[in-house]
Amino acid sequence: MISSVLVVDDDPNLVRLMSRFLTLEGFAPVPASNGAEALIYLRGGGSASVILLDLRMPVMDGWEFRREQREDPVLAGIPIVVLSGVEADGLQDMDPAASFHKPVSFPEVVGVVRRLCETAR
Fold first, then answer.
1. I need a surface site. Which of 3, 80, 104, 119 has the fewest CB within 10 A?
2. Secondary structure (3-state) at 119
3. 33: which DSSP letter?
4. Is the dihedral of CA 96, 83, 32, 5 positive or negative?
5. Crossing angle (nearest 10°) for helices 106-120 and 12-24
Protein backbone atom coordinates (compact mmCIF):
# COMPACT_ATOMS: atom_id res chain seq x y z
CA MET A 1 0.00 0.00 0.00
CA ILE A 2 1.32 3.45 -0.93
CA SER A 3 1.68 5.79 2.03
CA SER A 4 0.54 9.37 1.59
CA VAL A 5 2.69 12.18 2.95
CA LEU A 6 1.19 15.62 3.59
CA VAL A 7 3.76 18.29 2.67
CA VAL A 8 2.77 21.53 4.43
CA ASP A 9 4.94 24.46 3.38
CA ASP A 10 4.39 27.88 1.81
CA ASP A 11 7.48 27.56 -0.40
CA PRO A 12 6.17 26.12 -3.69
CA ASN A 13 9.67 25.17 -4.83
CA LEU A 14 10.33 23.09 -1.72
CA VAL A 15 6.90 21.46 -1.99
CA ARG A 16 7.47 20.64 -5.67
CA LEU A 17 10.94 19.18 -5.08
CA MET A 18 9.95 17.26 -1.96
CA SER A 19 6.88 15.90 -3.75
CA ARG A 20 8.96 14.79 -6.71
CA PHE A 21 11.47 13.07 -4.44
CA LEU A 22 8.72 11.36 -2.41
CA THR A 23 7.03 10.15 -5.60
CA LEU A 24 10.28 8.68 -6.90
CA GLU A 25 10.65 6.82 -3.59
CA GLY A 26 7.14 5.31 -3.83
CA PHE A 27 5.12 7.69 -1.67
CA ALA A 28 2.02 9.70 -2.58
CA PRO A 29 2.69 13.35 -1.64
CA VAL A 30 -0.18 15.72 -0.93
CA PRO A 31 0.72 19.44 -1.00
CA ALA A 32 -0.72 22.10 1.33
CA SER A 33 0.48 25.72 1.39
CA ASN A 34 -0.39 26.36 5.05
CA GLY A 35 -1.78 24.72 8.17
CA ALA A 36 -5.40 25.70 7.47
CA GLU A 37 -5.27 24.07 4.04
CA ALA A 38 -3.77 20.93 5.60
CA LEU A 39 -6.53 20.75 8.22
CA ILE A 40 -9.23 21.17 5.57
CA TYR A 41 -7.70 18.27 3.64
CA LEU A 42 -7.44 16.02 6.70
CA ARG A 43 -10.84 16.88 8.16
CA GLY A 44 -12.40 16.42 4.74
CA GLY A 45 -11.43 12.76 4.74
CA GLY A 46 -7.92 13.01 3.32
CA SER A 47 -5.32 10.72 4.79
CA ALA A 48 -1.66 11.01 5.64
CA SER A 49 0.78 8.57 7.16
CA VAL A 50 3.23 11.38 7.95
CA ILE A 51 3.04 15.18 7.90
CA LEU A 52 6.05 17.25 6.81
CA LEU A 53 5.45 20.61 8.49
CA ASP A 54 7.01 24.03 8.08
CA LEU A 55 6.75 26.34 11.10
CA ARG A 56 6.49 29.78 9.48
CA MET A 57 3.60 30.10 7.04
CA PRO A 58 0.86 32.62 6.36
CA VAL A 59 -2.78 31.94 7.29
CA MET A 60 -1.94 29.21 9.85
CA ASP A 61 1.60 28.48 10.96
CA GLY A 62 3.00 25.13 12.02
CA TRP A 63 2.58 25.82 15.74
CA GLU A 64 -1.15 26.52 15.40
CA PHE A 65 -1.60 23.55 13.06
CA ARG A 66 0.01 21.26 15.63
CA ARG A 67 -2.26 22.58 18.41
CA GLU A 68 -5.33 21.95 16.25
CA GLN A 69 -4.05 18.53 15.21
CA ARG A 70 -3.50 17.46 18.82
CA GLU A 71 -7.03 18.51 19.79
CA ASP A 72 -8.56 16.30 17.11
CA PRO A 73 -8.59 12.66 18.26
CA VAL A 74 -8.63 11.37 14.67
CA LEU A 75 -5.60 13.42 13.61
CA ALA A 76 -3.59 13.49 16.83
CA GLY A 77 -1.69 10.27 16.09
CA ILE A 78 -0.28 11.29 12.72
CA PRO A 79 3.45 11.87 13.23
CA ILE A 80 4.95 15.17 12.14
CA VAL A 81 8.41 15.94 10.83
CA VAL A 82 9.30 19.61 11.18
CA LEU A 83 11.14 21.30 8.31
CA SER A 84 12.11 24.80 9.40
CA GLY A 85 14.30 27.59 8.17
CA VAL A 86 14.48 29.16 11.63
CA GLU A 87 15.80 28.00 14.95
CA ALA A 88 12.75 27.26 17.05
CA ASP A 89 12.70 27.47 20.82
CA GLY A 90 10.25 25.03 22.32
CA LEU A 91 10.29 22.67 19.38
CA GLN A 92 10.28 19.73 21.79
CA ASP A 93 6.84 20.92 22.97
CA MET A 94 5.54 20.05 19.50
CA ASP A 95 6.78 16.49 20.03
CA PRO A 96 7.90 15.97 16.43
CA ALA A 97 9.03 12.55 15.28
CA ALA A 98 12.01 14.39 13.75
CA SER A 99 13.07 17.88 12.76
CA PHE A 100 15.28 19.27 10.02
CA HIS A 101 16.73 22.72 9.49
CA LYS A 102 16.35 24.07 5.94
CA PRO A 103 17.88 23.59 3.51
CA VAL A 104 17.05 19.93 4.04
CA SER A 105 18.62 16.80 2.68
CA PHE A 106 15.82 15.17 0.72
CA PRO A 107 17.27 11.64 1.13
CA GLU A 108 17.48 12.10 4.91
CA VAL A 109 13.89 13.35 5.14
CA VAL A 110 12.62 10.49 2.97
CA GLY A 111 14.55 8.02 5.16
CA VAL A 112 12.72 9.31 8.24
CA VAL A 113 9.38 9.20 6.38
CA ARG A 114 10.06 5.61 5.34
CA ARG A 115 10.93 4.61 8.91
CA LEU A 116 7.78 6.25 10.30
CA CYS A 117 5.57 4.58 7.69
CA GLU A 118 7.11 1.17 8.38
CA THR A 119 6.67 1.62 12.14
CA ALA A 120 2.99 2.49 11.68
CA ARG A 121 2.21 -0.75 9.82
1. 119
2. helix
3. S
4. negative
5. 60
Q: At what angle do helices 62-71 and 35-43 cross, to 10 degrees?
A: 30
- CB neighbour list of residue 42: distance below 8 Å, 6 or more residues apart: 6, 48, 69, 75, 78
User: What is the pLDDT, as a whole number, of residue 121?
Assistant: 59
Q: Structural domains in the chain?
A: 4-120 (3.40.50.2300)
Number of residues written out for the chain: 121
pLDDT of residue 8: 97
Per-residue pLDDT for 66 more than 90? yes
Q: Mean pLDDT over residues 23-32, rounded? A: 96
For every residue of 39-64, DSSP letters joined together read: HHHHHTT---SEEEE-S--SSS-HHH
Phi/psi of residue 88, each to 5°?
A: -120, 115
Mean pLDDT across the chain, nearest whole number?
91
**Alpha carbon separation from 96 to 11, 24, 45, 117 (Å, rounded):** 20, 25, 23, 15
- Cβ neighbours of 119 (radius 10 Å): 10
